[in-house]
Amino acid sequence: MKRRKFIHRLLAAGAVILTGAARQANKVMPRRFTWAAKYHKYPGGFRAPDDIFGQGKWSG
Amino acid sequence: MRVQCELCPKNCVIDPGQSGECRVRVNIGGTLTTVVYGYPCSINVDPVEKKPVAHFLPGTGILSIATVGCNLHCRNCQNWEISQANPEEMPALFYSREKLYWSPQDLVNIAKRANCPSLAYTYTDPIVYYEYTYDTAKLAREAGLRNVLVTAGYINPEPWKRLLEFVDVARIDLKAMTEEFYREVCSATLQPVLNALVLAKASGALVEVTNLVIPTLNDKPEEIRELVRWIKANLGGETPLHFSRFFPRHKMLNLPPTSLETLDLARRIAMEEGLQYVYIGNIASKEGQNTYCPKCKALLIERSGYTILQNNLKNGTCPKCGNEIYGVWK
User: What is the pLDDT of residues B36-46, one digit of tens each?
Assistant: First the structure.
């Protein structure tokens, strides 16, 4: 094998390994967020508000 | 793809379809999503004294909102039915049968209609409905209303600083001064709370601190002294401190309610150490509910429960000696 061909194959193999490693890292490393997106569908049910102009029953 | 929520110190790593510890920040399709934005489970006009807040517009009503969820899991939580609920289990309030969602503008409009000069983000913890709190607080500020946050202060510094731009009052719980208490009772850690308190003070917001005194867990005089000393050294002697009475609730039913003697002792220790405004809450207490001038000891505000019996302040100063009293009074 000529030296130039050997180097090309070596580079190609390195690229494959790097791509694989990057994909794997992407799976393992989570995407980081502070600000959450809105989701306009509440997962639970709904009820009518009580008297909102009166005092609440919860503490605080 | 997994996501990491960096809002609070839990820094939850969340698998697709799952939520963080707070139950309301969900990984939907590789994006962190809040499922409670616009869906409060409680909206009420409370007296501001109920938060408790003693140095902010006494005698006014405050539009108080909450969604379900909390990033702490305190064994003694008084509001555990909403703080520890999944959104699937706890119905949200609808605005009308045609419109389920409450926009930040809807909340501001209701506060105005109810003649409330301020809004409180409270009952559970506004940290977990951060985006709703932020957008509403920003809009409220633009509309000339004030914002009061009632929180455990368990949040990372960057989002906290961003929110503090719109916060007028930060009413923060300092539950104890030991990592052990925060770990065992609240599933949290102490240091981020201390950081949040310092940042709140530095932001220029009015800071009031609440300490729930729980028999045998955080009621030793030396622990109270340590807490008070930390407040004085880091937030200043003018910081109002509320010692609240514990009642057995949720997963802490084995302990008795805090005695008035213990609360009185805590108040005495705090005043000995140089805190100027120390209150007792959740129990009738003659002196522990009132505001006195730290200089001449004149009675400034007399309270009975959440009712103001007399308010003698003159433009935020003592009418007898002219001492300026820490707070937001108009």
Answer: 999 999 999 99
Nearest 5°: the CA angle B3, B167, B231 is 95
Whether A22 has its CB under 8 Å from any CB of chain B: the answer is no
pLDDT digit string, tens, across residues B292-325: 999 999 999 999 999 999 999 999 999 999 999 9
Distance, in Å, from the CA atom of B81 to the CA atom of A58, rounded to the nearest integer, reads 10
pTM to 2 decimal places: 0.93
Q: Which residues of B touch A48 (CB under 8 A)?
A: 93-94
Please list every residue in chain A whose beta carbon sits closer than 8 Å to the beta carbon of residue B64.
56
Could you report the predicted ipTM of this complex, rounded to two decimals? 0.91
The whole-angstrom distance between A50's CA and the closest CA on chain B is: 9
- Closest-CA distance, B322 to chain A, in angstroms, reads 32
User: Residue range B99-116: average pLDDT?
Assistant: 98
Strand partners, B32: B27
Q: Contact A47/B32, CB-based, under 8 Å?
A: no
The alpha-helical segments, DSSP class H, found in chain B are 80-83, 104-113, 130-142, 157-164, 179-186, 191-203, 221-234, 260-272
